[in-house]
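Q: Here's a chain of 556 amino acids. Please give me its 3D structure as tokens.
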Amino acid sequence: MMTDIEIAQNSELKPIKEVAASIGISEDDIELYGKYKAKLSDECIERFKDKPDGKLILVTAINPTPAGEGKTTVTVGLGQAMSKLGKKAIIALREPSLGPCFGVKGGAAGGGYSQVVPMEDLNLHFTGDFHAITSANNLLAAMIDNHIQQGNELEIDTRQIVWKRCLDMNDRVLRNIVVGLGAKADGYVREDHFVITVASEIMAILCLSNDMNDLKDRLSKIVVAYDIHNKPVTCGQIKAVGAMAALLKDALKPNLIQTLEHSPALVHGGPFANIAHGCNSVRATKAALKIADYVITEAGFGADLGAEKFFDIKCRKAGLKPDAVVLVATIRALKYNGGVAKADLNTENLEALKKGIVNLEKHISNLQLYGVPIVVTLNSFIADTQAEIDFVKQFCEERNCDFALAEVWAKGGEGGKALAEAVLNTIENKESNFRVLYDENDTIVNKINTIATKIYGASHVNISASAQKQIERIESLGYGNLPICMAKNQYSLSDDPTKLGCPKDFEVNIREVYVSAGAGFIVAITGTIMTMPGLPKAPAAYQIDVNDNGVITGLF
């Protein structure tokens, strides 16, 4: 059996201009990055702006487990299946971060016969968007320190610089550092920090901006520090906006690639959902909705993180109204939630399935809060038994969810036809009455409590004394009426990754709260979550190489 990367490398790609032509985009509308990658030009997006919107379908999942769920694989397979059924469809995905590629998660191109390609390019550098974001972030950091060095006209309190440098790599030793050591000309000595690029506010801003004017306006609002009078200092005051926008000019344009079956895919932006808002760019999603009749997008990790932020941040801010949600699960993952060891997941175990399906049940009930009809799909594994599949099917249908088996890893679009038909049936016969979870004008504490109790199922929220002071300052400065971006581990509904299934009577602990004024949300950090991950004991980088023929191996 071939690995994912071998399947991708043995596929025959079409020139990207032919893929573009299949959805009505001319060669003049795209900017080529080699033969198989392109960006949509600003003129292309403008040309489609008056077209009616297609239907928006979100793909989300239960909490991730070592057993595997395959959310991106299902997203790609569903897009391919829509094409096989004669529908004009586009998938809209996030770009992978280099950190997980070399860390533990691996690539993010899908799997088996439901992948986007060229997968090596996608997972390694792609069109340079993340490098542009990193450079813009660090230009701002350099200009802050230079402003202080050159006389500090804005009276920045060097103990209250909140802007952090970033790097698109898992590097734990950069979480807390000291800068400015050396001579007087080397700057002021102070504590500094790094976050991974996907957690940078610049990433969130790029993904939430409609156009260049919106991007520049958001950049100008970034709070980078506080002055000696405890007033916020912004990126606009540092005079960095124009130069940052110049670095981000091309990164703002959505990327067009293809699936293994030559279906179009817009892949743009890549914030993590456990430490950021977890959705691809608004610009790519809106462009796809104008170009295609059906747009299949995904949100990161489980529905408690990605879907909640997709609805409460992205849809709220961009005015999007999803028509259906696909909730991905696997028999293996549900049994893992029921207490079965990873080594024993291939054995039929209905008792463990009944115990672990509470995780799926919680995600179904959460999604129903948003008023969008749900299709549950099981990403098929060869060891799944008919009895196990039938149990999950009945369980979902009893909760007013359509159900379909997805065999997209092994069969590509052909294996996703049943899912595509279920989604089309749901869109045609069930009305979407989309609504957000909370009023953004509520207090910060109430909004945090709403997410923690209604979505996670927490009995109580503990807010540390320092976080409470941060909340009070945010509200006093007029930023309190923004949605909340919760930074939480992805493995559990709680902030404790060891609590599987659907934990009860637990508390969520908020240790830090800060405003991302440019992005337009407030970040609440729970538990021990880190915005700069570290590498595992045996990182995926050990397996990655280039052979004598120049072919990359071991990437996925």
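Q: Can you summarize the key feature?
A: Residues 380 and 407 are 5 Å apart (CA to CA).
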